[in-house]
Structure formats: C-alpha cells, structure tokens
C-alpha cells in the first residue's frame, strides 16, 4: 500500500511490510553478516513487518517480526544524535549502531540507484543509520527516506553492507505502509 502523505521521517510510526518483489535479496545481505543458510532460508520465505513507535521526533523504536517458525523478533532503537550505542542482537550477537539526520545531497551520494530521487518531505533531510558487529566481521549503512516507486510512494532503506573479506552488497529495502499501530 502506498504511504500516505502524512507519513514522513518525522512521523514514521505505524506498521510497514517489506515488499520482497521490489526489494533487494535479503539473503545476500544476511550472508555477508555471517548468518547461517538455514536462517537466511527461513527469513527469505517469511513475511517481514516493522512496527515503529516514536517517543519523539529524534527517537525511533523499530520492532521487526518475521512470520516463520523459530525466528525471534528483534527491536532496534534509533536515536538521531550520532552517538554509538551497543546492543545484543539474537542473530548477530554484540552490535554497535548510531544514527543521524543527513541532507538529501548526502543521501543521494550514498544510494544504490541515483536515478531514483529521494522525496523532499522532511525539510531536505534523510536518516542515516550505521551499524556493525562488535567483532568487526561486518558493517552497514542504511539511508532512510521516501521515493515514488512503481506508481506508489514508499519508504525506502538504501542499504550498503560489507564484511572483513572485502565483499559488499548494495540494494534497496522497500516497505509498504500497512496501518497505524
């Protein structure tokens, strides 16, 4: 479902479903992050939903659920102050992350496909989320914003993941708006 114009990065709360037909291959990203083939396969066949709450315009709580047996849900916290924080993740172990606002120009330079233009719905700003394993096995950046894709307004995370072997992957994760939660 197309994201309503009332949904912006400042007002992102609600339920968002991963649109697998428009998104990059999740299994490729997970492989670079060292997850097992069994987990990659299970997530590949699952429906993934993000439920976002926002205690403030600078803080996001993202609960991820996958409709597949034995896959635990995760909750990530994003505070847009560019401070590194650590977390214990059920898939990746100890991870670090930070996030901040960036300009549309910075986001355009970092995205996979520069022909797709970011929507200017948040005073010329996008969100940059950086993360990595504490043991240095992998790192990632994700630029959050909205784009018009296949005739619908969608929330996009432009993802870049790389590992210590020098392998990397770039692609977009595309989310359809589901509902207020």
3D architecture notes:
This protein is mostly beta strands and 181 residues long. It has 3 helices and 10 strands. The chain has a 10-stranded antiparallel sheet with strand order 4-3-2-1-10-9-8-7-6-5. Strand 3 and strand 4 form a beta hairpin. Helix 1 runs antiparallel to helix 2. The longest helix has 9 residues. The radius of gyration is 15 Å and the shape is globular. The mean pLDDT is 89.
Summarize the entry for a quick read.
The protein is mostly beta strands and 181 residues long. 13% of the residues lie in helices and 49% in strands. The model has no long low-confidence stretch (mean pLDDT 89).
Layout of helices and strands:
Blueprint: E1 14-18, H1 26-32, H2 37-45, E2 48-56, E3 59-66, E4 74-79, E5 85-89, E6 93-103, H3 104-110, E7 125-133, E8 138-149, E9 152-163, E10 168-179
Helix pairs in contact: 1-2
Mean pLDDT: 89
Radius of gyration from the alpha-carbon trace, in angstroms: 15 Å
Q: Level of helix content?
A: 10-25%
Our estimate of the beta-strand percent is over 45%
The secondary structure category is mainly beta
**Distance N to C terminus:** 15 Å
Overall outline: globular
List keywords for this structure.
181 residues; mainly beta; 10-stranded antiparallel sheet; 10 strands; 49% strand; globular
């Amino acid at each position: 479902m197309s994201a309503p114009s009332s949904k912006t990065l400042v007002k992102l709360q609600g339920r968002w479903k991963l649109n697998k037909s428009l998104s990059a291959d999740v299994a490729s990203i997970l492989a670079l992050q060292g997850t097992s083939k069994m987990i990659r396969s299970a997530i590949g066949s699952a429906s993934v939903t993000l439920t976002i709450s926002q205690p403030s315009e600078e803080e996001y709580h993202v609960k991820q659920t996958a409709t597949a047996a034995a896959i635990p849900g995760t909750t990530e916290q994003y505070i847009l102050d560019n401070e590194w924080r650590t977390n214990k993740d059920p898939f990746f172990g100890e991870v670090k992350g930070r996030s901040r606002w960036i300009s549309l120009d910075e986001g355009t330079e970092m995205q996979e496909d520069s022909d797709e233009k970011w929507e200017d719905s948040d005073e010329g700003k996008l969100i940059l989320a950086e993360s990595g394993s504490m043991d240095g096995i992998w790192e990632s950046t994700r630029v959050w914003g909205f784009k018009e894709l296949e005739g619908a307004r969608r929330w996009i995370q432009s993802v870049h993941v790389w590992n210590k072997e020098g392998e990397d992957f770039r692609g977009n994760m595309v989310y359809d708006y589901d509902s207020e939660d």
